[in-house]
Each structure stands twice: as structure tokens, then as C-alpha cells.
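Side project, low priority. Logging it here so it doesn't get lost.
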Amino acid sequence: MQRQAIQRILGLLLMVFSVAHLPPMAVSWFYHDGAATPFAVALAVTLITGVVIWLPVRSFKNELRLRDGFFVVVMFWTVLGLFGSLPLVLSPTPQMSVTDAVFESMSGLTTTGATVLVGIDTLPQSILFYRQQLQWMGGMGIIVLAVAILPMLGVGGMQLYRAETPGPMKDNKLTPRITETAKALWYIYLGLTVACAVAYWLGGMTLFDAICHSFSTVAIGGFSTHDASMGFFNSPLLEAIAVVFMLLSGVNFALHFLAWRAFSLRPYLGDPEFRTYAIVLVLVALVSAGYLFLSGFYESLPMAVHHGVFQAVSIGTTAGFTTAEYFAWPGFLPILLLLVSFIGGCACSTGGGMKVIRVLLLLKQGAREIVRLIHPKAQIPVKIGTKVMSNKVVDAVWGFFSLYIASFCVMSIVLAATGLDFVTAFSAVAACMNNLGPGLGEVGANYASINITAKWVLCFAMLLGRLEIFTLLVLFTPNFWRR
């Protein structure tokens, strides 16, 4: 690896991230909430650290290799999670331990939405804004943003893009240049955020709440400025707006780009992943609403449909907003919703989970193996639409699936070994790996009550899910470190 190149880019990115403390400082001054100082100190510490790292290697301009890209992505997300916790550690309200602050910061940046905070409604506005901003920054990936900026600083971006962008189709670029691709993704992301904020504002939210919730909605993060999440507003209109933008944000952003460029819905209708995504969410919404009504949990059908549809979309896209305590719902519904989060959003979206395209490939590969039992010598390609998937892609998806499940099992056992009950351990790992947020059992409402060891394990689970397993686990292989 090129240590100097990695050191230079890490220093640059830390300096860029230091600027993220300015907006919450401005919010603090506007609302006079007295929380500006922690952000000022955090800005200074982050900026100085970045400068110290960057200065010795500022003239080193070699292109990054793929191996370097993986290391930078993992290092940066880890370091950023630590530095992002500084304002939370330094702020007198809330009073947070280092473990809790890192957990909250990592949860925000990975768009997980799991929180250790109780009494969110009483927090300073700047802290509330900062949590939402962390999710918005993490939504499309800070590295993708950096890809659009770093070429101007003499740092190539293709290796970072390949290491950061999720999904098996990630080598397909929307535009000829990688910088233009990153910019295209961010224009769409920014446009959705503005549209969502305006819709929330017109729907009845205050301007502050509208901006904050647009950040976490488009990022599919799930943080809220209220303990009751979306249920605080008690507004079917606002919940309908949230459903629309969660659905849009869970779609492959490449489809948004193609649809916008062609001014047509055909890119959506012709995409197998999008069709599967829509079918899964519609079926889960119907089952949830139907069971809530038939079981008598909600006496009126409109109420059952209202909560059933919202939670199906929120959990299915891994956003994690709540209008009700879904973990207390009857029968199999909580488990069904949690399992749907394993599917998650589409590739190249802000959603978590394994991604719809991978699940679709797994199903098609399984169907092919069944046919091969009957016709052993038949040559049966695996297709997504009209495109034949290579064996390399299919093998990679199977490898991803096996590592995903193995990692999930190991971390669930570790959490159970720390003293958590099985439901809490199982759901906490699932919610954090899938970047969902709310789980079942003790972590249904928040993660404040679980032990310190469990919180650090779950931080690793969030990072593992956000970086799509391979990007992180490849660093633990001996081959990665061989010359």
C-alpha cells in the first residue's frame, strides 16, 4: 500500500469534515441554546488533526490503487465516527460517555438510526440538527462526495468509488467520468432533500423539523427530533409524505438519473430490481395491514392500513421511523418486518440491508439449481431482465450472503454472551447490520439500557453493514497485507 497517499487523503478528508461543524454552530447561535462551544472545539480539533496528518505528505500525488481505496474507506469511516462523536462528548446536554457518543455518531453516519438518547425533545436544537446532519452526510456516502471534490485537489477517485458504492452492479457508471457520476448522484440526492423538506413544511412541520426530517428521510436514517419519531406529529399527511420519499430514496439512484434525463418512467418500469422492490413492499404492507385489522389490534381498517403501510415501508427500506411501537405488535408481524429489513433497498440507494438485487440473484440461482437437478447437463444462465449475469457475479453474491449470515450469527452469539436475551441480541444485530435502527425486546425503543461491550459490537455491525461486508472484512485477510 501507498502509506503517503493514504495519509494525504485522510488528512484532506478530515479537514473537509471539520466544516460540518459550522451549520450546527449557526443553529446554536440562532436559537441561543448555549451549545456552540462544543462544536467550535470539535471543529478546531478535527481541522488541526487533518492539517497535521496532511502537511508532511502534501506534495505526494500518486494515484490510489484499489487496495488503497479499501483501506481509506474503512479508515475514514472509523476515524470519522470517532471525530463525529466529539461534540456529543463535549456538550453538557446531553451528558454522554465516550461509548454512547461514538455509538450515536456511528449510528448517524452509517444511517442506522439506533439511538442511546432518551428525552430527545429536550435537547438543544444544535445537537438535534447535528444528529440529522450526520445521517444526511452518510446517506449517499461521504466518500462519493469526496470523489467529486478530490480530483480538484490532485487525488483520483475511481478506487474510492468502487470501494464505497454498494451493490454488484457498481462498476456501471452513469456518465463517462467518475467525478461527473458522483456529482450526478449528489444533485439527485440534494434535489430529493429539498423537495422533501418543502413537502414536510407545507404539510405542517416547523421549518426546523422539516429540514431535520428531510435529512433523515432521504438518507433513510430514521433519526428524529422527537422521542415519538413520526408519531409525534400525529399527521397522516406527513406520514404519507415520508412514505413517498422513503420509497424514492430506497430506489437505485441510477434509475432516478436515467428517468430524469429521459423524462420518462420507463427506466423504473423496465428494471427487474425496482419491480421486485415494489412487489416486496406492497406484499408486506398488505400482510401487515390485514393482520393488524383481523387480529383486532386496530379496530378500524383505515387505522390498520395507516400504521401497517407506514411501518412496512419504513422498516422495509431500513429507514426506521415509527408511528407506533411495532415491536409490540401481535403475532409474527415484528419478526416479519425485521426479516424484510435484510432485503433492504435497491443497490446504489441510501437503503441498508443486503440489497434487492442480491436477493433477486440468490433466488434466481436457487431456481437454476433446482432445474439442474432435473436436467444436470443443461446450460441455464442467470438473468436479470435480459442481461446474463456472469458466474463471477453470482459467486460474489453467494460469498457476500454467506459472510453476511456468518457475521450476523457470530455477533448475535457475542451479544447473547454479554447477558442480553436472545430476542434483544438477535434483533439488535439485525437492526444494526441492516442499518435499520429500532429492534425488538430491550432495543425496541432505544439502545440506552444495553451494556458497553454490546454497544461496541453493534458499532462494528453498523460499519460492517454500511461498507457491505467485503470492504471491511477484506482488511482482516492475510492476502490484503501481502506485497
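Brief comment: The mean pLDDT is 90.
Revisit when time allows.
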